[in-house]
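Example: MFS transporter.
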Amino acid sequence: MQVTSQIKRLLLMNASSMIIFNYIGIFVNLYIWEKSRSIFDVTWFNLIMFLTWSLAFAVGSRLLSRFSTRLLIRSTAICGGITFLLLSFLELDNRLLWIACIGVPIGIMWGFYASAQNITLCVFGKGKDFEGYFSIASIIGQVVSIINPIAFAFIIKWIGYSGSFLLMFLFVTILMAVSFVTPPITLAEVKEPLFRRMRFQQVFSSSALKWMVPSCLSAGIFLQFQGLFALIFTFSVSEDKLVIALLNVLYATSTIVAMMLYRRLKTREGVWLTIGMLFISAGFLLPLLPKAPLLVASNILTTVGMFYFGTVWNTRQFRTISRHSAIEQARIFVWREWLLNIARITMLVLILFVEELKGAVFVGLIAFALINALVIPWFSRKGTEAFEQEQAQEQASKSELSEPLPNSLPG
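Written out as structure tokens, the predicted fold is:
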């Protein structure tokens, strides 16, 4: 699959940061979970992270009007260093305050990184580049998901969490070095301020963009349910770090199989998206019987479904956004991130009331997440149809303008 040199450099940035984010996603959450095995603690950490992420994404987009994406990647690396310093040395009696102090720099990392990645991809991405990028990024993600957990499980067993936190400074340094070769994208040449035309009606001005709104809200709900409980289900199966690492390898391997099928079978995007959401829905139902094998099977189904969802859903949305100018894209991305995170935060607030993997509240959350997952293919299809119709209208308008005027008849 061919991609441009700029996209290759973006993928290098993606790989460097993914090692850090994968470690945080598994072992920082596990570090918080092990203290009291509390769903509340892990949920509180993710809630603080996403609140900070939402603000950092907007700030990062604003910084692009004066600086380049390289500044954001360097800031991401610096926040990574701060995170591992705090994890190594910060001690507070108030546990919720301690968790919040850890969550804030991680949220800034994610917000700045997502802002830099999105605007870079839309500037360089053209048509098939999006599918190529997301497919290759998935491969990189799975390789990291296989090697990273096992490597750090052994490292933590050998030198403890503190040693692994210090070792992560090596990868933070690598990310800092990579920032010097990433494409220096900036909005500095755009004279119009980012937040001048940020009203909802001004940003979502077309039918295709308007369909993104319910799609992002529904996606945020089920993404957060899957993301958080996939961790908790895994932590509930075993306390052994190597077993947890091997389970994550199993999930990654399942995704690689799903990716191979995606490449070999010539099936329409919409069909793959529907298959993905059905896998996710089945995965949501299995935890109604919270037995260890079913929790593992649930994670396998949702992980495979997430591959199909992420590849198709993101490709379609980026394709729609790329038709707009750079400053318009930045505004759309800010709103898109806010919508996703508003939904994520809503789900996290609801999860705060879950004390164990059973009961009316837990079943209600499963039903809520399930409904949102099942409506995604319809929202995505309506948005794609609107996009294709708008493209056809633009082509028709261009054809009319390019037609030569008829010769004048002699008088």
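The mean pLDDT is 84.
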